[in-house]
C-alpha cells in the first residue's frame, strides 16, 4: 500500500509541474499575441529564406551522399524525366566545383558550359519547388 501511495504522489507532483508549465506557456503566448503581427511580406521573405536554406542542404545531400532520401530521390526523378537522361553529381577529389556526369549507354560524360548551367539551374528550381511544397 505504501508503494501505491508513493506512486500516486509522484504522479500528482508530475501533473502539477505540467500544469505550471502549461500556465507559463499560456502567459508567454498571450504576451506574444500582444505584440504587433508580422506583415505578409516579412512572413513571405522569412519563409523564402528558410526554403532556400533547406534547398541548399538538400542539394548538398544529393551531391555528397550515395544513399538518397525520398525528397532527393523525387528531385532526381523529376530532373531525369524532364531531360530524359540520368545525371550523377560528384565532388572531385581535388576539391573543385561539383561535376555533373551524364549517364549514357556509352558511359558517363562530364557536362560543361551552358548545358551544365542549365542542369544546375533546373536542379535548383526543382529543389526549391519540392521543399516549398513539403513545408507547412
What would you note in describing this structure?
It is a single chain. Helix 2 crosses helix 4 and helix 3 packs across helix 4 (113-134). The protein has a three-stranded antiparallel sheet. It has 136 residues and is mostly helical. The protein folds into two domains: 1-35; 38-134, no CATH class. The chain is elongated, with a radius of gyration of 25 Å. A hairpin with a 2-residue loop joins strand 2 (99-104) and strand 3. The chain is 69% helix and 11% strand. The chain has helices spanning 2-34, 40-64, 70-83, 113-134, and strands at 86-90, 99-104, 107-110.
Keywords:
mainly alpha; 136 residues; 4 helices; three-stranded antiparallel β-sheet
By DSSP (H or I, 4+ residues per run), the number of helices equals: 4
Please trace the helix and strand order, writing H or E for each element. HHHEEEH
Strand proportion, as a percent range, falls in 5-15%
Can you list the strand order of the major beta sheet? 1-2-3
Largest beta sheet, briefly?
3 strands, antiparallel
Radius of gyration: 25 Å
Low-confidence stretches: none
What overall geometry do the principal axes of the alpha carbons give?
Answer: elongated
Count of DSSP E strands? Answer: 3
**Tally of distinct domains:** 2
Helix content: 55-70%
**Average pLDDT number:** 79
First CA to last CA: what distance?
Answer: 50 Å
Amino acid at each position: 500500500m505504501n508503494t501505491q501511495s508513493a506512486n500516486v504522489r509522484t504522479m500528482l507532483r508530475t501533473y502539477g509541474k505540467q500544469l505550471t508549465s502549461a500556465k507559463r506557456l499560456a502567459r508567454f503566448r498571450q504576451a506574444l499575441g500582444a505584440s504587433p503581427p508580422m506583415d505578409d511580406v516579412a512572413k513571405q521573405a522569412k519563409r523564402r529564406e528558410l526554403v532556400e536554406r533547406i534547398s541548399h542542404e538538400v542539394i548538398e545531400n544529393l551531391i555528397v551522399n550515395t544513399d538518397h532520401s525520398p525528397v532527393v530521390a523525387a528531385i532526381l526523378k523529376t530532373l531525369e524525366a524532364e531531360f530524359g537522361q540520368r545525371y550523377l553529381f560528384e565532388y572531385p577529389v581535388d576539391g573543385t566545383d561539383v561535376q555533373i556526369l551524364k549517364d549514357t549507354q556509352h558511359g558517363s560524360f562530364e557536362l560543361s558550359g551552358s548545358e551544365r548551367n542549365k542542369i544546375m539551374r533546373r536542379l535548383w528550381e526543382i529543389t526549391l519547388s519540392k521543399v516549398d511544397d513539403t513545408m507547412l
